[in-house]
């Protein structure tokens, strides 16, 4: 078997077709998963106004010199994916490939993230909006400092306010810290739904961590993440069906 990724494998009975849509249960349909729930209705912009506001936000990020990371960047990395999606993925910050390309999660970790989402029938560019806690690459991929995260947080908050995701995947401990202000091991935090500002948040292991932990054994980080992602998929299906009760 090639690089041992649980996310290339779809267990029998998962109800999911490879890279595709649910084959049973509450299907999300073939269309992009668009946001705009009654929950989020207040303050939702129409797509054209939202996209204009996101373009202005991207221009503000480009002009930003709010912390020391700006000096070392090649490009500001703001987002990729669908701003109309119900699902937002938040990572830590750009790596070398993201810095060079200007898009988040395009390197090895990003490719794994794509496969992880695909394994539950989600397309990363169609069904998710992807961003990071910090928009500029920290040197040598170190964790961003509290000052850098605080400087960048208004941009992330604005992205969340404009995209109005109903479900947010927090990829790794830095994303949890950046969004919720909770410091702690991701091993303890992952897999538990949190409600935050009317949204459902699911902390998961960061794909980079999964690249370093290749085991697919029951109970391994990859196996646990597969459980978490199936939970996210079920939650999205529930929301799509109009059920916003607790998971
Ligand atoms: N890791 C992240 O957290 N974000 C990226 O964009 C790439 C790698």
Task: Write up what this structure looks like.
The structure is a single chain. Helices cover 36% and strands 11% of the residues. It has 247 residues and is α/β, with parallel strands linked by helices. It has one domain: 3-Layer(aba) Sandwich (Uracil-DNA Glycosylase, subunit E), CATH 3.40.470. A 6-stranded mixed beta sheet has the order 1-3-2-4-6-5, with helices on both faces. Strand 5 and strand 6 form a beta hairpin. It starts with 46 loop residues before the first helix and ends in a 7-residue tail after the last helix. The model is unreliable at 1-5 and 9-41 (pLDDT under 50). Uracil (URA) binds at residues 91-95, 98, 104-105, 107, 109-110, 132, 208.
SSE arrangement:
Blueprint: H1 47-63, E1 80-81, E2 87-91, H2 96-101, H3 108-118, E3 128-132, H4 146-163, E4 167-171, H5 173-180, H6 186-189, E5 194-196, E6 199-204, H7 207-212, H8 221-240
Parallel strand pairs: 2-3, 2-4, 4-6
Antiparallel strand pairs: 1-3, 5-6
Bound molecules: uracil.
Task: Describe the structure using short key phrases.
247 residues; alpha/beta; Uracil-DNA Glycosylase, subunit E; six-stranded mixed β-sheet; 36% helix; binds uracil
């Amino acid at each position: 078997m090639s690089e041992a990724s649980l996310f290339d494998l779809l267990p029998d009975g998962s109800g999911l077709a490879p890279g595709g849509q649910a084959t049973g249960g509450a299907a999300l349909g073939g269309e992009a998963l668009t946001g705009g729930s009654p929950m989020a209705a207040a303050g939702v912009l129409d797509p054209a106004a939202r996209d204009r506001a996101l373009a202005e936000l991207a221009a503000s990020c480009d002009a930003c010199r709010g912390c020391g990371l700006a000096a070392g960047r090649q490009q500001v990395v703001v987002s990729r994916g669908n701003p109309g999606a119900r699902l937002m993925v938040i990572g830590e910050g750009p790596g070398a490939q993201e810095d060079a390309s200007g898009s988040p999660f395009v390197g090895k970790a990003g490719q794994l993230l794509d496969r992880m989402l695909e394994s539950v029938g989600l397309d990363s560019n169609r069904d998710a909006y992807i961003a990071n806690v910090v928009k500029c690459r920290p040197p040598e991929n170190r964790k961003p400092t509290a000052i850098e995260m605080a400087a960048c947080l208004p941009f992330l908050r604005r992205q969340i306010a404009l995209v109005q995701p109903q479900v947010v995947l927090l990829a790794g401990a830095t994303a949890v810290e950046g969004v919720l202000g909770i410091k702690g091991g991701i091993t303890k935090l992952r897999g538990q739904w949190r409600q935050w500002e009317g949204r459902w948040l699911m902390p998961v292991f960061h794909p980079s961590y999964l690249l370093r932990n290749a085991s697919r054994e029951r109970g391994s980080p990859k196996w646990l993440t597969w459980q978490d992602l199936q939970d996210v998929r079920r939650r999205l299906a529930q929301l799509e069906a109009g059920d916003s009760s607790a998971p």
